[in-house]
Amino acid sequence: MYKIFFFLIISISISAQKTEFIKLDQSIKDRRSLTRSLTLLDNRTDKNIGKIDDKGELVTLRFEDEDLKDHIENWFLKDNKKTGNTDIVVILEELKVYNEQDQDKDYPYAKTKIKVSSFLKRNNNYYFIYRFDNVIVCNPKRVAHAPKYLAEQISEIMTDFIKVSYSNAIISYSIPENELYNYSNYLSKNYKAFNNSELKEGVYTDFKSFYDQEPNAEYSLGKNKKGKVVRLMHKDLQTSLSEMFCYVEGAKVYRLTPVGFDEMKKNEKGFYIYSSRANLFAESKTGGVLVGAVAGGVVGAVIGAAIDSGSNRNSGAINGIGFKSSLEANVYIDPLTGAYVFEK
Q: What confidence tens digit (pLDDT) does each residue in 3-35 have?
């Protein structure tokens, strides 16, 4: 009798646990009909997404269909009847939800860590297309239900990421099949900014020219009497500071952000600045959130613009900012996209 009672208690407890489903049901149509196939490689070490608190109750997040590979590939086929000649491979590298109480914060925030990358496959070689690598923050005091909010964020990120992957520019270095899961380290071998002991002085107009160490000789800096950079010159004409990604001077790198110049430093993970979402996604005077440096050097572009532009690799257009926390921490610069990578 005791065993039966214990079994019933356990069964009731399990059935009472709440689940929030991540729905992948928005359109991912390739409007230019260039893509023939989309293959998902689920490379997560742990397929359990996790649980987060919802007003005192733990809620599990999961996809509606646990066979994620089959689900996403069928999702693509449902929305893309006409086939082109491009094969895209998407790798889901990380997806976790959790509660974390940051230093000097009064209560925990709900967060999701998501990392997903895409590649063009051609003749058993792979060409990097895009990557989204970030931590999305939810302030539970500002939303009705944190699990629902993060489930919607994950859905929107996956949807927009696939659509961006149809048309984004492709880095020219090929990746052999046996190096696909090691693609980041494989590609970083080509970046002089990582491997050279000294950085070239000058103005860099985008993230790629910085990592390739190719300053633009047509640009120069103008300073005030205190020695601070206040203007950018293109040949003999003053131009917008937004045309500059960063500059190197005196062996130091300075990164342009919506709130001024921040020094870029380097550690074993790569280049980073010490900042916060509140600073890097400052509100514009006319409303809307400024992308800042996320667009590879375009400061002042409103999120949502130019998603399909290969020249403006705007990861800010993928809905992946969440709550603009004032928490300051190391914010890394993704060498493959120029996007900010938040870890907190």
A: 444 444 444 444 457 999 999 999 999 999 999
HSE-CB at 77 with a 13 A cutoff on CA atoms is: 8
d(CA 259, CA 281): 9
Buried b (16+ CB within 10 A) or exposed e, 26-62: eebbbeeeebebbebeeebeeeebbbbbbeeeebbbb
Joined tokens for residue 34: 């260039």
3-state secondary structure of 155: helix
Burial class (CB in 10 A: 0-12, 13-18, 19+), 243: middle
d(CA 256, CA 118): 28
d(CA 51, CA 74): 27
Cross-sheet strand order for the sheet of 109-122: 35-42, 86-100, 109-122, 125-138, 174-176
Distance CA 319, CA 298 (A): 17
Q: Say if residue 252's pLDDT is above 70.
A: yes
d(CA 253, CA 246): 7
Q: Which helix (H) or strand (E) holds 159?
A: helix 146-167
Joined together, the tokens standing for residue 276 give 């916060």
Dmax over CA atoms of the chain, in Å, equals: 90
| 161 sits in which H/E element | helix 146-167
In the chain, count of helices (H) and strands (E)?
7, 18
Cα 251 → chain centroid? 28
C-alpha to C-alpha distance for 316 and 297, rounded to whole angstroms: 12
Highest mean pLDDT (candidates 6-10, 281-285, 286-290): 281-285
Half-sphere exposure of 297 (CA within 13 A, CB side): 19
